[in-house]
Design brief:
By secondary structure, the chain is α/β, with parallel strands linked by helices. The chain contains 20 helices and 20 strands. It binds thiamine diphosphate.
């Protein structure tokens, strides 16, 4: 027997979960005291930053990550990162302190109803009924977090529990893959074998299931065009591959139009489909055979059309590769690659986001990792950044800003051998700006590129697209100096205003091994609402 505290550290050690992200308060001190020296505590000055860095660390390590928040105080502040973890299938084992059990019924200061608060965004939310259950609950939570689909779990732990005696939980092997029904996969095989013009959709779960090579091999075997899922939170297909056709548009009618010529569409590891603006239409043209292969039963149930198959996405792709006939492609149907298609932007003043991202693409190492959050310039980023290696791209999973910067810092800590770059809007960076300090303190050499247009451009674009008009308050961001804010957190930083200064500033950032921030003044009025302007029948709210 050991204390609950000692037993917990031992269990975390055995599972390799020795990097803990958090923000402390009085109710966590009995756990945090005398942390064993083989553990690292990463402090986030705000819980959005702490849990967000844990999310990035989990992306980078592929492992469950332990998070320690403060009661409902931290849980509330960290909730947007918890919902990111839910939508990104990130296995965060989140714990938070609760008041002393012996006075809980009297509703003392800092009493927490966090279990009820987080429930919709975690796989399990629980407060153990007795102190002796805490280590076993942490073990159960960890195994559940890693079972497909992965995701965050949450435990509220009364502060007096840590000094009780408790038996250590067994370190057990628990399956981390569930396989799809082969009878249904054979239906996909038959459809692909009979098809004339199939398309594959590469979704973000391919990365969760280690399917990078499996989808490339399947696409090449079938000679089939590949699209990325709409508003991609990961890039799961090499950007310069001859079969890559770019991203799908995030609305019903335009997406259906994009796929209108296809007779068979197979979606790997994504929703059917992720939409943003409401532009009604068929999810897919009637007559096209649509299949979805997902590791998430909820996404299978929620699909708007087609046959849904639940199971490991990579294993399913390998099955289809093994059972379908190889196909050739007539030379005249080979389209130009996206790299060949993008025009070279001019170095004008003010700097355009097209020029910014084409310059970044020229300068960055080919194995750079991008964690981005630049809403209105996403189109240019998507067009000009060419990344052909797996685990290279991370973006907001459900539209909640505050994701990018802490994710970049956590990723950089988990993957020191690859340089992490965070292109981020001057509005977006404010939601978790404290992560700059954590990057400095943890010597995580992330390169933050602030896309400074001094407004909420994406929202202005949405106003235009949906005919709300421009008479809306709160759209402009004058007077924010990110260079000084970064310096206040101890980060080296500089402003770039002239196009000729951009490349040298980026070169210097990559040559140094320090974290840094470059604030680039860019032309206002970037891309329009994620390519939605290509769509007919926009919704009208004006
Ligand atoms: C937490 C959160 N608050 C508000 C929003 C609404 N929102 C969506 S895009 C956007 C603008 C972000 O501004 P910036 O980062 O400067 O990017 P830009 O639109 O200028 O490209 C806002 C406020 C959101 N998605 N998430």
């Amino acid at each position: 027997m050991n204390t609950v505290r000692g037993t917990t550290y031992e269990f975390l050690r055995q599972l390799g979960m020795t990097t803990i992200f958090g923000n402390p308060g009085s109710t966590e001190l009995p756990f945090l005291r005398d942390m064993p020296p083989d553990f690292t505590y990463v402090l986030g000055l705000h819980e959005r930053a702490a849990a967000g860095m844990a999310l990035g660390y989990s992306f980078g390590s592929g492992k469950p990550v332990f998070v320690n928040l403060h009661s409902i105080a931290s849980t509330g502040n960290g909730l947007s990162a918890i919902q990111d973890a839910w939508y990104a299938h990130a296995p965060l084992v989140i714990t938070a302190g609760q008041q002393d059990r012996r006075q809980l019924l009297g509703e003392p200061f800092l009493v927490s109803r966090a279990v009820e608060t987080v429930r919709p965004y975690v796989k399990w939310a629980y407060e153990p009924v007795g102190a002796e259950d805490v280590p076993a609950a942490i073990a159960r939570a960890t195994y559940l977090a890693m079972l497909p689909p992965r995701g965050p779990v949450y435990l509220s732990i009364p502060m007096d529990d840590w000094t009780h005696q408790a038996a250590p939980p067994q370190v057990r092997k628990v399956s981390e893959r569930v396989l799809a029904d082969p009878t249904l996969l054979d239906e996909v095989v038959r459809a692909l074998d009979a098809s004339k013009n199939p398309a594959l959709i590469a979704g973000w779960q391919l990365e969760e299931d280690d399917g990078w090579n499996a989808i490339i091999e399947l696409a090449e075997h079938l000679n089939a065009d590949v699209y990325q899922d709409p508003i991609a939170s990961r890039w799961t297909f090499p950007r310069s591959h001859r079969l890559f056709r770019g991203g799908l548009l995030p609305a019903q009618q335009p997406l259906a139009d994009q796929l209108a010529k296809r007779d068979v569409v197979v979606v790997f590891g994504a929703r059917v489909f992720l939409y943003y603006a409401y532009v009604p239409g068929n999810p897919i043209k009637p007559g096209t055979k649509l299949f979805q292969i997902t590791n998430d039963p909820e996404m299978a149930a929620a699909a708007l059309a087609g046959t849904s198959i639940v199971g490991d996405v990579a294993v399913a792709a390998k099955y289809l590769r093994a059972h379908t006939k190889a196909r050739s492609r007539a030379p005249e149907t080979k389209p130009t690659t996206r790299t060949e298609a993008a025009p070279t932007p001019e170095p004008s003043h003010p700097i355009t986001t097209a020029y910014l991202f084409s310059t970044l693409n020229r300068v960055m190492p080919r194995n750079a990792v991008i964690a981005e959050e630049c809403p209105s310039s996403k189109g240019d980023l998507d067009r000009y950044l060419i990344l052909d290696e797996p685990r290279s791209f991370y973006s907001v999973p459900n539209g909640v800003l505050g994701f990018g910067l802490p994710a970049a810092v956590g990723l950089q800590m988990a993957r020191p051998e690859r340089r992490v770059v965070c292109p981020i809007g001057d509005g977006s960076i404010q939601y978790s700006v404290q992560a700059l300090w954590s990057a400095v303190q943890n010597k995580a050499p992330v390169i933050v590129i602030v896309v400074r247009n001094s407004d909420y451009s994406a929202l202005k674009g949405f106003c235009d697209f949906t005919q709300v008009g421009r008479n809306v308050h709160g759209m402009d961001l004058p007077g924010i100096d990110m260079v000084k804010i970064a310096q206040g957190y101890g980060m080296s930083s500089r402003e770039v205003d002239q196009p000729g200064d951009l490349e040298p500033a980026l070169q210097a950032a990559f040559a140094s091994n320090e974290p840094c921030l470059i604030s680039v003044n860019v032309a206002k009025g970037g891309q329009k609402t994620m390519g939605m302007d290509q769509s007919v029948n926009p919704p009208k709210y004006g």
